Amino acid sequence: MKRVRDSLSKKLTTMNLLVSAAALLLASAAFFAYDVITFRANLRTSTGIQAEIIGENAISPILFNDPASAEKTLATLDASPRIIYAGIYTSKGEFFAGYWRAHEPHVPHPLPSTALHQEQTSNFEKGQFALTQTIVFQGQPVGVVYILSDLKALTNRLKTYTIILIVILSVSLLAAFSVSGIAQRTVADPILQLADTALFVSREKDFGVRVPETGDRDEVAMLIHAFNEMLQELQKRDLELQEREQQFRTLADSIPQLAWMAQPNGDLFWYNHRWYEYTGTTPEQMRGWGWQSVHDPEKLPEVLRQWRAALAAGQRFEMVFPLRGADGTYREFLTLAMPVRDASGQVVRWFGTNTDITEQRRSEEALRRTEKLAATGRLAASIAHEINNPLEAVMNLVYLARKQPANLERYLQLAEHELERIAQITKNTLGFYRDSASSVQADISALLQEVVRLYERKLQFKKITLRPEYRTDMVIVGYPGELRQIFANIIANAIEALPEGGDLCIRVSRSYSWSGTPREGIRVTVMDNGPGIPPVNRRRIFEPFFTTKKDTGTGLGLWLTLNLVEKHQGHLRLRSSVQPGRSWTAISVFLPAQPAGL
Amino acid sequence: MNYETVSVPLPFLGTPKWQPSFASNEDCEQDPNKQSKRLHILVIDDEFLIAETVVEILRGEGFDAQAVDTGDSAIEVARRTPPDVVLSDVIMPGMTGIEIGIKIREMVPHCRVILFSGQAATVDLVNKARQQGHRFEILAKPIRPEALIEVVRKGSGIF
What we know:
The complex is a heterodimer.
Chain A: H1 2-63, H2 67-75, E1 83-90, E2 95-100, E3 120-125, E4 128-137, E5 140-150, H3 152-204, H4 219-254, E6 258-262, E7 268-271, H5 273-279, H6 283-286, H7 300-313, E8 317-324, E9 330-341, E10 347-356, H8 358-403, H9 408-432, E11 440-443, H10 444-454, H11 456-461, E12 465-470, E13 474-478, H12 480-497, E14 503-512, E15 520-528, H13 535-538, H14 557-567, E16 571-577, E17 584-595
Parallel strand pairs in A: 12-14
Antiparallel strand pairs in A: 1-2, 1-5, 3-4, 4-5, 6-7, 6-10, 8-9, 9-10, 11-13, 13-17, 14-15, 15-17, 16-17
Helix pairs in contact in A: 1-2, 1-3, 3-4, 8-9, 9-10, 10-12, 12-14
Chain B: H1 3-7, H2 9-13, H3 25-29, E1 40-44, H4 48-60, E2 64-68, H5 71-80, E3 85-88, H6 97-107, E4 112-117, H7 122-131, E5 137-140, H8 145-154
Parallel strand pairs in B: 1-2, 1-3, 3-4, 4-5
């Protein structure tokens, strides 16, 4: 800050002094030159006049060869102390009479060679001025006057001038210096104050300070006024920003989720209260990558891998993992993180939340169990119906046999047939519900045939043509009861959707998984040419409690099916068309499998 | 339910002895013991064995019974010979027993409709029909033939 002040005021002073000195020197030099020229011209004129007067007076002495008289005339030069020597020479250049200033040796000076040929010569040389003037009488040159003068007067004049100049220069420089002080007060000081304030604001981020206004109406005052207005605007925005920040913090602290923010490099720099409350940690422990301490050490490497991948790609992060609470127990959290980008699309930070889904998981599990129970109940009801009909027939036949002994044989035969039917049903359905506790190898074709047999009567009622294609030598490792339930649900849905005389196609083929890492397995496709599923329902059809059959459906069948498929590391795909006349629905299930005999 | 007063005593007065074989309608009409119009009962079940044995049992009790296995043929028969009692299965391909009951009631308003079903879900269907103003008697399969005869005679079905 000091540097700026020094530089600006020094610059101002130096400039002031330089300008003053230069102006003075320039003016002085001009004066000097003018004075020297004028002085020389005056000297030449006055010396010329003196030479002419002496020449006039020397005519008769020369003509009458009276040097004494000429010397008397020359002696009048005594009045001019600058004249060192004066001499009168004949027209042939011979010395005639002379004048010497006091203390000068009485030696005649030689006449300059040009003097005899020119009317007047003058020459400044070696601090002296020499002038020759031809003496003319009746048009004829009769002699020459030679005057030698010193230039002491000029030198003295110049000396005086120099002294005056030095004095004026000093005084004016002093004046300039003090003027620059005033300039500094009125111009430099406000600007320096402006600079100080700007620096303070940018360092301290305190927008409350103001630069004192000078009260002038010059550009500096305008600058200061504009700067203050800018500060006021900044202060307003800063307050708004603080308010918004406060709102955000309040919101972030009031949600039940754990929330946090991270730098683009993944350093977490902020957590909401809920985070600290749940984990029982401190901000110091959590700084940077400190969050790892609340993770399950077994799951952490995978969390880190996925988090780093999301950071590198700048893409949404979504993962479920456990977090340790303050009480030391782990709970499951669904974690979502989104990159926040600036106007240029650069990631400037990440915003993330962790939602406790432990309860949700628990209730989903409970729902799954309930649905299993309900499915069992429904199955029991349908089994009852299957058995009640032949039972009714048997009862009637037994009654008739008793009443009409004549037809006994025939009634008993019919009754026997009906009893066989009952036996067949119980055998199938009991096999159906004998679920094993552990997974076993299952032959998918045999399993599907068993399931289809259960719906045989329904197929017959609706005159549905079944087109089975069970071409596979693969075996599935899984829970047969659950596998049966998967296909029973899908096939029952297809049958319900089908109109009378429709086609039901069940195809089993070797396949590779169509999502995730490729795995070998089988694909079971159940296709019907029913009315199809409208696109609006296609996505929701796997949601729990979503049903289009309000009277008979619970809306849990396909949801449970999807759950069971996923439990077997498989996946499910639904395709459908509602094009009139050519509508259909196909559900494909992929299940990991291996060739039989391995 | 005025038909109870006219129809119930007749079978009692009628055949004291059992009429063997799957008797035809003609056989019944030629019954020498017939004194007045016998109760005409229409039995509908998609399992034809059930319909036929029930008809056999009812005829043995002196009723004029006839078996059909679809709703369409039931309507057809009812149009030709209006039944006094309809005894129908509920869940069947095509028309349900309830739909058949409603249609026949439109033609024969005083016809008694007894539904018999092996499925629990039937109760819901019957309740729904009741909300729409159609009252049917309902029996659960399997029903002992003696009980069935009793219901047909006395009209003591479950409402």
